[in-house]
Amino acid sequence: MELNMNSKEDFIVDKKNVLQSSIINSTLRDWQCLKCEITATNLMYPVFLIENDDDIQPIESMPGISRFGINKLRDHLEIQVCNGLKSILVFGVIETLPKDKIATHADSKANPVIKSLPLLRKWFPEVTIACDVCLCPYSESGHCGILNNDGSINNTASLKRIGEIALAYAKAGAHIVAPSDMMDGRIGAIKSILQAHNLLNKVAVLSYTAKFASSFYGPFRDAAKSKPAFGDRKCYQLPPGSSGLAIRAADRDVQEGADMLMVKPAMAYMDILKEVKDKYPHYPMFVYQVSGEYAMIYHAAQKGAFDLKLALMEILGSLRRAGADVIITYYTPFVLELIKGKSKL
Ligand code: PBG
């Protein structure tokens, strides 16, 4: 091939198209990263509520995280609210109340979430409260739905119960109910029961849209005392390799009237996060950085693999870039402290 006479000029023109001129100082660098900003509004903080109001129980599998009785949670949240906390996701954990086939204590008067919601609303009027809706912390099987005698899921009975529990949390003061059970049809069932009780326009539904059957929930099952007594959750949580089912789940949630969508876990599922957000840009998109991800990052930093602050902000920023509007993370208190007084890290 003959040498192109213009090649020298082409080379010079090419050289003008540099990237480094776009990142000459921190303001220019920030302009490249606006989609990745992390403010308090982008964070939701999961908390574990126990029966004994004055107890606090550190969770061994999640160093730095504890289960709180309501009085201890009050002290803990006061600090977070001063740092700008906007929203929490509440999980109930029972130890003395009995677990049974129909998860009676998911919505009984003795349930720690039901008891605490009016207090949380009164003490923290500026905090938006979401409640996880599921049977597994309260059912003797540890499964997320009601089972038939042969161990299979009874969908009709499960939807009825999940609807009742969601309604009870809504009546007790939850702004948001968040079903994490992955039963077919639960968004529609919850919307119907809210409608029947004139709460349709007063309570939002955050769907755990694409919740995968993941290894990363290990520490949570210890934290929430919700390990399945037998079997696994592969018949209702999505197979990790499947993006098709995740998109179908999002389509269905939207049809059934979900207000907000979620992908869970986070880091290993960022392609799903992006695909769902790209398909439904008008829905606030949540991603859950789950217990195993929390522990993984904690232990890696602890062993000196990286700096916790830098690595965490890189991960959270990347989740925002992939399409997350809100990140549910146990690191919320740490991040609020980091971003305090700064518009951005
Ligand atoms: C209950 C529920 C789980 C999580 C949130 N809600 C556990 C599970 O499905 O096994 C996981 C949260 C975490 O790992 O941080 N259905």
UniProtKB/TrEMBL annotation:
PROSITE patterns associated with the record: D_ALA_DEHYDRATASE
Example GO molecular function: zinc ion binding
Binding site for Zn(2+) 2: H143, C235
GO terms (BP aspect): heme biosynthetic process
Residues reported to bind Zn(2+) 1: C134, C136, C144
Keyword annotations from UniProtKB, A to Z: Heme biosynthesis, Lyase, Metal-binding, Porphyrin biosynthesis, Zinc
EC numbers, comma separated: 4.2.1.24
Coiled coil: none
Binding positions for 5-aminolevulinate 1 per the UniProt entry: R221, R233
Domain of life (superkingdom): Eukaryota
Binding site for 5-aminolevulinate 2: S291, Y330
Active site as annotated: K211 (schiff-base intermediate with substrate), K264 (schiff-base intermediate with substrate)
Keyword Isomerase listed: no
Cellular component GO terms held in the UniProt record: cytosol
Involved pathway(s): Porphyrin-containing compound metabolism; protoporphyrin-IX biosynthesis; coproporphyrinogen-III from 5-aminolevulinate: step 1/4
NCBIfam families linked: PRK09283.1 (NF006762)
Subunit structure: Homooctamer; active form. Homohexamer; low activity form.
Family: Belongs to the ALAD family.
Biological function: Catalyzes an early step in the biosynthesis of tetrapyrroles. Binds two molecules of 5-aminolevulinate per subunit, each at a distinct site, and catalyzes their condensation to form porphobilinogen.
Protein name per UniProt: Delta-aminolevulinic acid dehydratase
